[in-house]
Design goal:
alpha+beta, 11 strands, four-stranded antiparallel β-sheet
Length: about 325
C-alpha cells in the first residue's frame, strides 16, 4: 500500500495524500450532477477533516469522516481514501471491498498507472482475507461480524480479514446464534448454522417453573417448650406446697403436746391434711406434665421436609429453650 504508518512524513506525506486523493468540490457534482450545494459543502468539509485526522494517525476518526463525506455527497474517489484508512486499521477485507468499488466505479476515469497501483495493492491484500461460505437453514439470514452488521447473505458468502472474529447469524423469527473463530488469511471455510425458531424458545420458557423447592428443616418444638414450662411451674408449686405441708405437720405435732388442746389439735390436723392434699395435687400434675413433655419431645425431634423458597423463607428468630436442673432453673437462647 502507498499509504501506511511508516510513510507518514510531514509535508511530503501531505503532498502525496493530496495528489492521490484530492477531491475538489466540483468532483461531487461531476459524479452526481444533481448533488445539492449543501451536501457538496458538507462533503468537502468532512473530507478535509478526514485527511487531517488520517495524517494525525486517528484512523478511526478519519474513517468516520470519510464515510460521512460519502453520505453527504457520494463520489467514487472517496472509496480510495476509505480503502487506505481501513488498511491502516487492519481491516483488510474492508479495504479490498473499498478498492474494488473504487475501480468498479472509476476505472473509465482513471489512468493506467493509477489502475496498476490499485491492482497491486489488491494483490497484496487478498491473501490476508478469508472467504466464509454460510450454510443456514433459513433464507437470507442477517450476519454481524465483530458487532458490525454485514446485511443479509444473499449469496451465502462473506469475506473477512484474518484474525479472531465474533460472528452472529440470525433471521426474523429466529434466535441468534453466535460463534467466535480464529480465521487465517486465504482460508475458505464453510460454516453451518441451524437457527431455532423463537416460538420454540418461548414455548420452553412458558413451561411451568417450580416456584418452591423442598428444604429440610428441624421440626417445631413449641409443644415441648410449653410442656417444659408447665412442668417447671407445677414442680415449683409442688415444692412450695410440700414445704407448707411439712410445717403444718410440725405444728400438728406441737399441738399434740399441749394439754387440753383439743380444738388446736383439730385445726392443726385439718391444716395438715389440706396442705398435704394440695402438695399431692401439685405432685400429680407435675408428673403428668412431665410425661406429656417427654411425649412432645419425642414427636418433635428430628427433621422434616417443607416447601419454601429463598425469597419467602422467614428470617430466623431467637430460639429460647428452658433448662431445668437439680439446683437451677434457666433458659438457653440460640440464633
Amino acid at each position: 500500500m502507498k499509504l501506511s504508518v511508516s510513510c507518514v512524513r510531514g509535508p511530503l506525506f501531505a503532498f502525496v495524500l493530496a495528489c492521490v486523493t484530492a477531491l475538489p468540490a466540483t468532483s461531487y457534482a461531476d459524479s452526481h450532477g444533481a448533488a445539492a450545494p449543501v451536501g457538496v459543502e458538507e462533503g468537502r468539509t468532512r473530507f478535509n477533516r478526514g485527511v487531517d485526522l488520517y495524517k494525525e494517525g486517528n484512523f478511526h476518526g478519519a474513517l468516520a469522516e470519510f464515510r460521512a463525506a460519502f453520505a453527504a455527497a457520494p463520489s467514487y474517489r472517496i472509496h480510495y481514501n476509505l480503502g487506505q484508512t481501513l488498511y491502516q486499521l487492519q481491516d483488510y477485507a474492508g479495504a479490498v471491498r473499498a478498492l474494488d468499488q473504487y475501480l468498479a466505479e472509476g476505472r473509465d476515469k482513471l489512468d493506467a498507472d493509477r489502475i496498476k497501483d490499485v491492482e497491486g495493492d489488491l494483490a497484496k491484500l487478498r491473501p490476508r482475507i478469508a472467504k466464509i461460505t454460510f450454510v443456514v437453514n433459513v433464507p437470507n439470514p442477517e450476519v454481524t461480524v465483530d458487532d458490525e452488521p454485514r446485511g443479509t447473505l444473499e449469496n451465502q458468502e462473506l469475506f473477512v480479514s484474518g484474525g479472531r472474529h465474533r460472528i452472529a447469524v440470525t433471521a426474523p423469527g429466529y434466535q441468534t446464534e453466535n460463534r467466535a473463530l480464529d480465521i487465517a488469511g486465504a482460508q475458505q471455510l464453510e460454516l453451518k448454522f441451524d437457527l431455532k425458531p423463537i416460538s420454540t424458545a418461548a414455548a420452553a420458557d412458558s413451561r411451568p417453573q417450580p416456584l418452591a423447592r423442598p428444604l429440610v428443616v428441624a421440626k417445631r418444638r413449641t409443644p415441648f417448650y410449653i410442656g417444659a414450662m408447665a412442668t417447671l411451674v407445677l414442680g415449683a408449686g409442688t415444692g412450695i406446697s410440700a414445704i407448707l405441708a411439712s410445717r403444718r405437720q410440725s405444728d400438728y405435732g406441737k399441738a399434740l403436746g399441749v394439754v387440753d388442746n383439743a380444738r388446736g389439735i383439730d385445726e392443726a390436723r385439718r391444716a395438715t391434711r389440706s396442705t398435704a392434699l394440695v402438695a399431692d395435687v401439685f405432685g400429680g400434675a407435675t408428673v403428668l406434665a412431665a410425661g406429656l413433655t417427654l411425649i412432645a419431645y419425642a414427636l418433635t425431634s428430628g427433621t422434616e421436609r417443607v416447601t419454601t423458597t429463598a425469597a419467602s423463607a422467614a428470617p430466623r428468630r431467637p430460639n429460647w429453650v428452658p433448662v431445668v436442673g437439680p439446683s437451677s432453673v434457666g433458659a438457653r437462647c440460640t440464633f
